[in-house]
Amino acid sequence: MWKERPELWSRDCSAFNVTAAMFLLVPCSMRLRFDCVLSRASFEADEIDYEDVELRVSGNISGAHSWLEVDDENYEPLTCVAVRKSTGFPLDPQPPVFWSKDGVYSGYCDNSILPATVHDPTKSDSILPGISEKSDSIVVSQGTVWCETWVPRSTARIASKQVLVTLKDWLVLIFNAHVEEPPGRTCTWTDLCPEGYRAVAKKHCVKISAPDTWDAGFGATYKTGLENSVLDKFSFMKRTRGRNLYEAVQKLLNESETAVIESNFLTDKISRWPLLIKGSLLCPTGWNTTIFKGKDETCFKLFQVKQNLTWPEASQFCEDLDAQLPTPYVGFLDWVYRQYLFLNKVPNVWMGVEWRNERLLYSGSEENLNWLADTDYSQPYGVLEQNGWKLQGRKEGKHHILCQKIISPRVAMQLQVHEPESVGSQTMCIDAEPQTLLADGDYIHPRCYVNGEFTHHERTEDSGCQYELKLSGQGYYQCQAWAHPPFSFVKSNVILHRDPATHTFVITLFQDKPYVPRRHDSSFMLTNRSNRDSDTCAEVFMADLRSTDLTDRFRFTDKNFFYMPSPTEMKLLHNFHLECEIKDTNTFLMPEKTLLKTLNEMLPMGKTFSDCRLWDLRSTQGCLRDVTQDFGSGTTKELTWPSTSGNAIVLPEQLCITAEGEPVTRECLGDFFVGYYWGPPSNNCTGDPSYITRELWKISTNPKHLSESSELTVLTANSTSLQPADIHFVAQTLDAFSRDEDISSFDLEDIVGIMNNVMAANETAFEPVQWKLNSSSTILEAFEKMTFKVQLPREKGDQAKNSSREFISVERLDLEVNSTIIGYKSRQLAGKERHGETLIKGVNELDLDDAEAAILLPSNLTFTVAGDIGQGRSVEIEEEKVQVTFAVYRNEKLFQENLTNYTVNSHIIQATYKGKIVKNLKDPIKIYFKPLKSGNDTVCVYWDFAKNGGRGGWSSDGCWRGPREKNHDICHCNHLTCFAQLINYDENSSFSGTDALVLDIITTVGCCLSIFGLLLVFTTFFLFKKWRRSLSNKILVNLSFSVFCSMVVFLAGIKQTWNVTLCRGVAVGLHYFILASFGWMLVEAVHQYLKFVKVVGTYIPRFLWKASVCAWGIPVLPILAVLVIDSSLYDYNVDKSNDVLICWMSVNAFKYAFLPPLVLTMTVNLIMFSLIIHGAVCGRARVNSTMSERTLFMNQLRMAVCVFFLLGFTWIFGLLAIKDLRPTFSYLFCIFNTLQGFFIFLFHVCRERSARRMWRDFLSVLTKDPVSSSPGNSFNPVHSGHHRGHPDSVSFDKCGGILVLPRGPPIRSHLRSSHRASLLSARTASTLIPSSRASFNP
Fold first, then answer.
1. In Å, what is the CA distance from 193 to each residue of 223, 248, 262, 267?
2. Nearest alpha-carbon partner for 817 in 913, 927, 745
3. What is the pTM of this model?
4. Is Hydrolase found in the keyword set (predicted)?
5. Where do runs of H (alpha helix) occur along 1179-1319?
């Protein structure tokens, strides 16, 4: 209920008076609390595939552009309905929707609205300056309207098409004009801000990222070199004309008290259109690029051609230049390209968008669209104009062609911050390598921050570093810079600087007062003493501390004050750093642990300071040694956790593992800013360590227990029994060996043996310890160090030692400065034996044909490395050598990373020089990979040990693909480390390689045999009138015809993708004939049931005619439904793993128009099959027979097989071909389903007695061979017998039919023919298989 009914043109905002329980209007600037109410969805979201849902706006809409005309008296309504794309049926129930007009969300949440009554005066006032709240509201009744809904349990939303609402009798003009800037004047372009940004305070473009961490928000919104970060608080808080930018951003966020802004980035002033185009060193001469950042450089150039080119001709023109048509739908390129056309006075060019098979093909974001209002969506090709996008026809031509190239950089800039050179040094060095990649302009120098606050640095050359940063206190130091090409944002490493004469602790005081983000969040507000909420607590705490005896030795200071909310109550927490600086530097500095213990005794938890109490006191160096109790083994066990330095995940000093064999760990959480504290133990000690685990643990805790390295090889020999804890203990042992300076030499065979044993362990043993304890990366780094401790002969010339096992091959080399060795390859010998060998200068392609993996270095690299490390000037032989290690890993178990779409598709090859990090090579290295799976979506990568927080991961920086050479994929990289190839491959999607070839052969041969067999079935049907009289045979021929047509269409048309219409026709034909075959299988099942189970009262008038209408007619219905809803669902089905196009339906069409009839038919047929088998085997009294049990069983088995193929149960194999069972059932499906037609001929013609007799008679006439054709006697003693003592006799034929004859008088020979006819029904009711149905024709 409203206190006063609001007017439509009111500028105030609605609010709810809790006391009066009424709605009222209040000024929008008023600060009020608000509540968010979450309601449970009225339907289960899991039951709906929201990718198949769209919103449709219906009403009195006309035209292809959804135009609604209304008059000023009778407003037209619009209705928003959620429907399924695949079926067109509305959802039941309908999800809640909300409406938007001109980009402003209204308060209307009903499914139907009157759009002309919905408007936002503030929005309209900004668009039409002449309109105010006193003006006629008719003008603002017009606008663009659409509806949206949220996807349940997701942040995604679904939006409808846009409807343009205009008033009748009003002339509506839609235009977008560009004004060229006259000399000496500044013009304003309509697109002042790029996509995703909003204008604020008339001078800035603002983008607010989604709630996330600072780094994530930073990466999401820092797109150009024009942004200013909120870290630059001076510019952000600077007041202009009485207000600052922060206040404008707060207004944008509606001043929500519960909003905590994680990140926000701002452009420079936009009173003038910024120039978005520049040159680039990466781009070819004459090509330009953009100022916007990106992983790759986007180069573009405008060409003027002699004659107008159509879209296909323009696309080919760009392809000939190794380029493509422009893609303005990616990132900010739309803004850039339209400015480029404007500057060059070109009206329009072709763009990389086209309609194909009734689908608009482009790879951009659905939210980054710029279609013009007059776009004709029936046209096929995209056009980029100065004011937006449109579509044009096939015959249109363009005189100007815009082409773009995507170029990956070969060298990336690295920014490094160095520790102070000495304890007393007051500066840090900053190096940018290579410095030439620093961006031009205002951002040519790095920008550095201390604990997030900007700090100044100076350019210097005297100190030996490029930039010098003065220390301004303890904390985190990091620098950032813009680099090019391509334009990218580079962040340095983070240095934690500590004053050695100062102990620092984090003090947290609790105040029983609510935490208000707008007041207490320090993202935008400086929490210095001038604007703190309350200084009393901190002041009382510091005064109390300064009154103790510790002031004689320490000088206490509080710094870095900030507020935080308490975890559960959202109360106010005061946080600050307590710095304890020793007064006399000549005296012994008390250990931090001792000082922290003293402070805890003097300042116990809960002690009050004014209206606050002490909440926590933490160290800023790490977690202190701690003891916990464990009850996992049933008894109390003390676990001692060692102290840490900073963040760390540690093991207790006692052996403790879980039942799964994982080590129990505990993490030290926090950082220097908030202090360090222990988390809970990861688990309990529920496992019983094995002998191997105990021995490995002893060695890892004290490596001196290991007498020689071969002992570790023996302990790890049983690889399959190694548990996650064992992998970690091996990693700790190898790491200790590699760091032990007393160990000067290792045996290469022992090292390789240990590595091979570890790599043979179960893959599940690696991931738990890699992501917690970094064990795999530790093994790799220790292995590299240990190989360089392998001693080689001190002789002239290149010296080498190698070792190869099943999973790893290693070559350790001491090379002369001018060595001819430039690479390494691994190849497979007989059986599983592998061998590695070096490559020398002059190596050719023939030498690499048998390589599984190979690496070729630049010919002068060894000489360059020797010069860099200063060994070329040495005199002694051993000092003139350059140490190199090559290695090949044949599985990726030590390279653990959670890859979502990609998997390792090659062996992993490594090349390393001792004492030199090789990077930024002018001449790249060349790597050969023999792919394990075929496919085109591959990526060249290397193992980056610094990725994923130091745990390692695959990275493609500095690596790129080269042209394929024979059976090898080629990669190039400009640095050295471990290299591999990744492939986007889904093992459940399709087959490749040998499996694909074998399945293709099986399919082709099976279909050909089936077609041959079905032709013989048709020949039998048309040749023999007596054979085609049977209803069973008529049904059989209809089934055979549908199967025959589906196989012919499949073989002839499945790959006819060159013509859209033909391909669509093939898909429709396949769909129809397969569904028709399902229908006839169902008819056959019903007929068999009536014939062999029900028997009596089974006559159905005109059964065949009714069955024909159903089996041939019903399959048309789902096909028509698909064609009406979306005929393009019958277009190419793409197998993404090997880029194969086939003429078949899409996934949605298969899911809704093919799978349900298949499942329904198989279900009914399975029920019928069970009834038939039960009736034949178990449903009748046992018959006495002279046949053995085995013979009876074989006849029943033959009957079951006949019915199995007749009813199409081979399709069940296709339904079961999923996940791990896919290979097995795919082979079964291909074998039996393609041979279905041949099996029909084999079981129902070839093995049928009457058909064979007719063929013998027919062939005897042709060959004039007087072969007797008298019908067989079913009472022939060879095929019949009498069970002694039983009144009945039993007879059977070769197809497995069993006939029960009642005992009676002897039958005379002249009556046998008629008697046979009279017994036909009894024989039919007793026969066990359908194949014998025509054996007793008169």
1. 13, 16, 22, 9
2. 913
3. 0.58
4. no
5. 1189-1206, 1211-1215, 1222-1234, 1236-1241, 1249-1263, 1312-1318
